[in-house]
Design goal:
The complex is a heterodimer.
Chain A (H helix, E strand, L loop, with lengths): L9 H7 L10 E12 L2 E7 L2 E3 L3 E5 L6 H7 L10 E9 L2 E2 L7 H7 E4 L10 H11 L6 H11 L3 H4 L12 H14 L4 E5 L7 H14 L4 E5 L3 H7 L2 E7 L5 E8 H6 L4 H7 L5
Parallel strand pairs in A: 4-9, 4-10, 7-8, 8-9
Antiparallel strand pairs in A: 1-2, 1-3, 1-5, 5-6, 10-11
Helix pairs in contact in A: 4-5, 4-7, 5-7, 7-8
Chain B lengths: L1 H10 L16 H7 L6 H37 L5 H6 L3 E2 L4 E2 L2 H32 L2 H16 L2 H20 L9 H25 L3 H9 L4 H12 L1 H17 L2 H6 L17 H10 L7 H31 L5
Antiparallel strand pairs in B: 1-2
Helix pairs in contact in B: 3-14, 5-8, 5-11, 6-8, 7-8, 8-11, 9-10, 11-14, 13-14
The chains are: A alpha/beta, B mainly alpha.
């Protein structure tokens, strides 16, 4: 692996982490002055945040504040939008994933993603889980992998008798858990979740949240959510985003979820949390 | 009725809100007359007009079928014709009352198979390129060009086959092996003819695959090629299959190219470099000559036409079935 040393000095990193209680070294992802453009439009600017290893970090904020854009920068999903341009750095294990030598495909192999709307492949349940492993050259026993993964995703008991049936026959909540299973089947280090429960009913939502808590023992999870109760229930850390007068998103503050929700440092965070706007 | 019960509910205080009569200048009967069903002349007229348009096309089809069936029946009822000979005979020589459709059928199969061998791989690849790889600008340039290709009259393709493809084949394989009229040349050019059809329909099917499936594949660390070949193409398979089948039925029914370049005389051969007459080519040649209306020759081309009709009908039914059966609901 090419190791490109971070372009920022240690002091600068400390500087941008000064507001956060976490100790360096347990960091899964950090960003430095991350600014993302769509053409000439600046979608988010100067994001300096960091994500704790094997914790759940929630991104909250009003619509259009760039939470999803930042999330999609973490596995270079924005590369698929031709007009998108990224400035600054996203450090993943100390490596800037936007360095010219970095292969986006390799990044996505290690940073998985679950989307807002369940999007299983129009294939069998088994194939959905096995697909990622297969294209990544998995050499082990696929049957075992599929069972282990589906158990991990708390879906095995519901689907074990119909593994060869189409994934599209499952309910929305089951489909979403299948998508989570599909993501963890290739054992990524980080799982990005873009409003994973917003298309689901409350019971299915609850099950997804329970699953997230279980997965947090092994994975770093970053979740974008519109639902503040969900952020409060499920996450360890919360980052609050806002949108400025030029419609560019920026991060207001981040910290322990408990503190953000009970004792926010910034007035804007307090106003948003207490429902005064947004 | 419903209005009255609502009104009663309002009066008895069960529902919040005002009675229609409460508003100044509006009474209950006003509301009733406002909601009264109105007769719209234009609506009735347009509905009738559209129905007639639809009916004309159906009636025409029935008329064509009737003529085809009627003339074919005259042919098959002729004492000189036997059904068994028609389907198994390897000679089609109306002059000596030999009516075996196999040589014509065989030539049609050869030209169509060659055309499909050209058009399917090329068309699908081009469709994958257009839908998955090309930038919007490239696609904006290429698609109209492709559609222009589809607009060239087939007679031009016919002369292209005769004056370009045949000499090319003769240079490549030797003038001794390749006859001047041959099914290979006609088939290859017919492949170019149906290429835009295959490309365009396959591209539509690929583009209809939701972007969320591509995102899912990329998020699992798939490359562009893996995404295209292992997710997008399988997801669009029903549409692609339908495109292939429609292309096949177009190839079977194609006339001008084979009439010009494939040969003018039924011959039962599997060699694509030999001349052979296809079903459509034969119909064109015979109907161009001076045949009397009640001769057996005249009736025989309707029998061939009927066979063509059944072939394309079968293919279209299969394609409909495939599309319906394998149509993937993505959500």
């Amino acid at each position: 692996m090419n190791f490109i040393s971070p372009i920022f000095t240690h002091t600068q990193v400390q500087q941008c982490l000064v507001d956060t209680p976490a100790a360096a070294g347990n960091c899964a992802i950090e960003t430095h002055d991350l600014t993302i453009y769509y053409g000439d439009f600046c979608a988010v600017r100067d994001i300096n945040l960091h994500v704790e290893l094997r914790k759940i970090t929630a991104f909250i904020g009003p619509s259009g504040c760039g939470k999803s854009t930042v999330l999609r920068a973490f596995n270079r999903m924005n590369d698929l939008i031709p007009s998108a341009r990224v400035e600054g750095a996203v450090l993943f294990g100390g490596q800037n994933i936007y360095a010219p030598t970095v292969d986006a495909v390799e990044v996505r192999r290690r940073v998985g993603m679950v989307f807002q709307k369940p999007n299983p492949f129009p294939k069998s349940i088994y194939e959905n889980v096995a697909w990622g492993a297969r294209i990544n050259g998995y050499r082990g026993n696929l049957d075992e992998l599929v069972e282990r993964t589906l158990r991990h995703a708390a879906l095995w008991d519901e689907v074990k008798d119909k593994l060869q049936q189409s994934a599209l026959a499952l309910s929305g909540g089951q489909q979403q858990r299948l998508c989570i299973a599909r993501a963890i089947a290739i054992e990524p280090e980080i799982i990005l979740m873009d409003e994973p429960a917003s298309a689901l009913d409350p019971i299915a939502t609850l099950r997804i949240e329970e699953l997230m808590r279980t997965l947090a023992q092994d994975y770093t999870i970053i979740v974008v959510t519109h639902n503040m109760q969900q952020a409060a229930r499920v996450s360890d850390y919360t980052a609050f985003f806002m949108v400025d007068e030029n419609r560019a998103g920026y991060m207001v503050e981040q910290g322990h979820t408990r503190e953000i929700f009970t004792n926010p440092k910034d007035k804007r965070t307090e106003d948003y949390i207490t429902g005064r706007f947004g | 009725m419903a209005l009255t019960s609502t009104k009663q509910a309002l009066v008895s205080g069960k529902l919040p809100g005002k009675l229609p009569g409460d508003l100044p200048g509006e009474t209950a009967s006003d509301t009733q007359s406002l909601l009264h069903k109105r007769f719209r002349l234009g609506e009735t007229f347009i509905q009738g007009f559209l129905f007639v348009c639809g009916a004309i096309s159906i009636l025409t089809t029935i008329g064509i079928l009737y003529v085809l069936g009627h003339e074919s029946l005259l042919f098959f009822r002729n004492p000189d014709v036997s059904l068994l000979e028609f389907f198994t005979g390897t000679k089609w020589q109306p002059a000596i009352l030999e009516f075996g459709i196999l040589p014509l059928f065989n030539a049609t199969l050869i030209t169509s198979a060659i055309a499909l061998l050209v058009a399917l791989p090329l068309g699908l690849s081009a469709a994958v390129y257009l839908s998955e790889y090309a930038t919007p600008r490239t696609r904006g340039v290429l698609k109209p060009i492709l559609e222009i290709l589809a607009g060239i009259p087939t007679v031009v393709y016919g002369y292209f086959a005769l004056s370009f493809m045949t000499p090319l084949l003769r240079t490549l394989f030797g003038a001794d092996t390749v006859e001047i009229y041959n099914t290979a040349s006609a088939g290859l050019v017919m492949g170019i003819l149906i290429l835009p059809l295959v490309t365009s329909m396959s591209e539509d099917a690929l583009s209809a695959v939701p972007g969320s499936l591509r995102e899912a594949a990329y998020a699992l660390g798939a490359t562009k090629l893996e995404t295209a070949v292992k997710v997008v193409v399988p997801a669009a398979l029903s549409g692609i299959t339908a495109a292939f089948i429609i292309a096949a039925s177009r190839a079977i029914g194609e006339t001008m190219i084979v009439a010009i370049a494939a040969g003018a005389g039924p011959s039962f051969t599997l060699n694509p470099f030999r001349a052979a007459e296809t079903m459509t080519g034969h119909i064109v040649r015979i109907s161009g000559g001076d045949l009397s209306y009640d001769s057996i020759d005249y009736n025989s081309i309707f029998a061939i036409g009927l066979m063509l009709f059944f072939m394309t009908l079968t293919l279209n039914l299969i394609s409909n079935r495939i599309v319906r059966r394998f149509r993937e609901v993505y959500e």
